[in-house]
Design brief:
The complex is a heterodimer of chains A (about 400) and B (about 250). Chain A is mainly α and about 400 residues long. Chain A contains 14 helices and 2 strands. In chain B, helix 5 packs antiparallel against helix 9. Chain B has 9 helices and no strands. Classes of the chains: A mainly alpha (about 400), B mainly alpha (about 250). At the A-B interface, helix 5, helix 8 and helix 14 of A face helix 4, helix 5, helix 6, helix 7 and helix 9 of B.
């Protein structure tokens, strides 16, 4: 049954409490939890990270909103803490990276299929193919640097194959800015989708910028630098989908609605009961935030929140493998690039993008170096070589 | 290319670098008392609390018993077969990482060259192949047991995390061949001890044939360990010499 955003009031702000132990004691199991539990954890960290980022920007621009923003932001900060701390300490940064790319692929694939606006749906498919390629390049690095199997993280839900070659994803900034939806006419799900995807991509960019320099391997350092640049492009792309004509309060209201929508999507699909409790608790917290902001919206803007919000939440995000959809998009749209706000065949790219790319790749392409000739095999690419060797009685190769 | 491991230079980390400032810092620390009573055991208590509450790292996946040959059923007899599968999963992961470690060492050899009594390309390549063949041995054994050789078992996860620093160190462009051998030493020490344990476990569970296969792998690992130790000893002693005596010392 769908959730009625106007009837469900959730937990009031003054009853949203945490302790340090409560914030840090739960963790998912890298070995035993389903990959989609990790995907949900990663996405929700991105959603909360966006809520805090937006709230700070809004507070810097709106004198009368600074105090209500501060009150809610503190709770969002702790929600982000609890969610992000669900990642276990034995999940290395490179493993978390594989999880981030899987999240980007599977969540964007779900959003692309549920998006009613064809231009936005096209934009999601376009970006998805690039993140799809990143998973393959990072997988090659993981396999070749550590001898470890990336599929232990992605658990066979997502293909580990080339997408749109990372080396050609580099575009001039003016070819990454898209056309925004029109707030007056856009479907509510369109506005939520744009927020979800920009939140996810923004956290990926921040994460790569933080962990990239923590590697010793020069190939890893370069690969993170390269893919972080694409994530920056993606943030530019996805944030430009949101209508800049929306008021600050309207945007805040949409953020809160999106947080309810996303926690509720997680709640509907979660398989780990301990994590499901978290999604239930935070759905209720977010409903509390939403009603708090609905009241502000009515009082300060004199507008009815029903102008902005759907009565019932749209269909939840599909947390399952989108393999067939992704393969179809790969087959049909790999050859696309962007020119201005539009999508064009690669042969029609703007001169500025060609020059920009040529300059960046002029001393070599990290993603190409990391993945030259790479083919994922169950148990790493070494498994194939190991198959070929025959061991002598003393355990040596003939 | 020459890059000594122990060059003299402007290291700034010690307290003697800034005699005046360090005296002030020491005085400050003595003047201001700790505000919370207790000692490091408070941290231990907190860790104990969390350890009591947390679950395990993960589990060993069940074997696929369907269509399994009688020989495989026999292998699973006696004791908890999951312990054997867990430890075999550990060797599978470690030998793969070991294969990558020797690839990293080969890159160092290409850049920095070797020294009298140091490793040759042939030796490093041979050890890489040995590690790969040990992975193949473990993989086949797991398959015979009806276990999934691609599964990351808890023991594999632990050993991978414990030794995470080794590939990290070998991939560092600041590290020369002699320095990187210390990473190989760590890996070979663990590898030797782990094969020994696996042999004991196989015997304990009554798998004499497996124990013999593993013993042959251990014999090879013991040779690796002896070689790595000898390369480090030769290189370190050469580096400590001066003048003409130091000819052929590690880069």
């Amino acid at each position: 049954m769908a959730l009625d955003l106007f009837k469900e009031k959730g937990v009031p702000l003054d009853r949203q409490r945490f302790t340090w132990k409560d914030l840090t004691r739960r963790m998912i199991s890298k070995l035993d939890d389903d990959a989609f539990t990790r995907v949900r954890v990663i996405l929700m960290n991105g959603i909360e990270s966006e809520s805090v980022r937006f709230s700070h920007a809004c507070a810097r621009m709106n004198r009368e909103l600074r105090e209500p923003l501060a009150l809610i932001r503190r709770v969002e900060h702790f929600q982000q803490t609890l969610v992000n701390w669900l990642n276990p300490g034995n999940q290395s940064p490179l493993e978390t990276t594989l999880g981030y790319e899987q999240t980007a692929i599977e969540v964007t694939a779900s959003v692309a299929q549920h998006e009613p606006d064809p231009y936005l749906a096209q934009t999601y498919r376009f970006g998805m193919l690039e993140d799809f390629d990143h998973l393959y390049r990072y997988s090659a690095l993981y396999d070749r640097l550590c001898g470890k199997d990336p599929n232990t993280i992605t658990q066979s839900y997502t293909d580990i194959i080339p997408g749109r070659l990372t080396a050609i994803e580099h575009r001039h900034p003016l070819d990454d800015v898209r056309r925004p939806y029109e707030a007056r006419t856009a479907a509510p799900i369109t506005r939520l989708n744009a927020l979800t995807i920009v939140s996810a991509e923004n956290q990926v960019h921040t994460y790569y910028m933080n962990i990239g320099p923590s590697f010793t391997d020069p190939v890893a350092r370069q690969l993170y630098a390269e893919i972080a640049a694409i994530e920056e492009q993606h943030v530019t792309q996805y944030e430009s989908l949101c209508d800049p004509g929306e008021s600050w309060l309207e945007k805040w209201l949409l953020h809160e609605a999106n947080e309810v929508y996303n926690y509720y999507s997680c709640l509907r699909s979660e398989t780990n009961p301990r994590i499901k409790e978290v999604w239930q608790r935070f759905t209720d917290y977010e409903l509390g935030h939403l009603h708090y902001v609905m009241e502000l919206f009515q009082r300060l803007e004199g507008r009815d929140p029903a102008e902005v919000l759907p009565r019932e939440l749209p269909e939840p995000i599909g947390y399952h493998s989108h393999r067939e959809f992704v393969r179809k998009v790969l087959m049909n749209e790999e050859g696309l690039s962007a020119k201005g706000t539009g999508f064009v065949p690669r042969a029609e790219e703007a001169e500025r993008t060609l020059l920009y790319r040529q300059q960046l790749n002029s001393e070599g392409s990290p993603s190409a170096i990391a993945s030259a000739g790479y083919r994922w095999r169950p148990g790493t690419e070494l498994a194939e070589e190991a198959e070929r060797v025959s061991t002598l009685a003393e355990g040596r190769i003939q | 290319m020459e890059r000594k491991a122990s060059e003299m230079g402007m290291n700034r980390t010690g307290i003697r670098v800034h005699p005046v400032k360090s005296r002030e810092t020491v005085e400050g620390s003595e003047k201001f008392a700790p505000d919370i009573p207790g000692d490091a055991s408070v941290i231990a208590k907190q860790r104990q609390d969390f350890a009591r509450e947390a679950g395990n790292l993960g589990t060993v996946p069940p074997p696929n018993l369907k269509g399994m040959a009688k020989a495989a059923m026999d292998l699973l007899k006696g004791g908890r077969a999951t312990v054997l599968v867990d430890k075999l999963g550990q060797r599978a992961g470690f030998e793969r990482t070991g294969t990558r470690l020797y690839e990293l060492a080969l890159s160092k050899l290409d850049v920095f060259g070797t020294w009298d009594g140091g490793p040759s390309r042939e030796q490093l390549e041979k050890i890489r192949r040995d590690e790969l063949s040990h992975f193949a041995l473990v993989k086949r054994t797991l398959e015979k047991l009806g276990a999934d050789p691609t599964a990351l078992t808890p023991a594999a996860e632990l050993q991978a995390n414990m030794s995470e620093g080794v590939p990290r160190m070998l991939a560092d462009p600041h590290v020369n061949l002699l320095q990187s051998l210390e990473g190989l030493l760590t890996a070979e020490l663990v590898d030797n001890a782990s094969w020994e344990l696996l042999i004991e476990l196989a015997r304990e569970l009554g798998h004499q044939e497996l124990a013999e296969d593993f013993q042959r792998a251990l014999d090879v690992e013991q040779e690796h360990l002896a070689l790595v130790r000898a390369w480090i000893a030769a290189g370190t002693k050469l580096e400590a010499r001066v003048g003409e005596e130091a000819a052929g010392a590690p880069a």
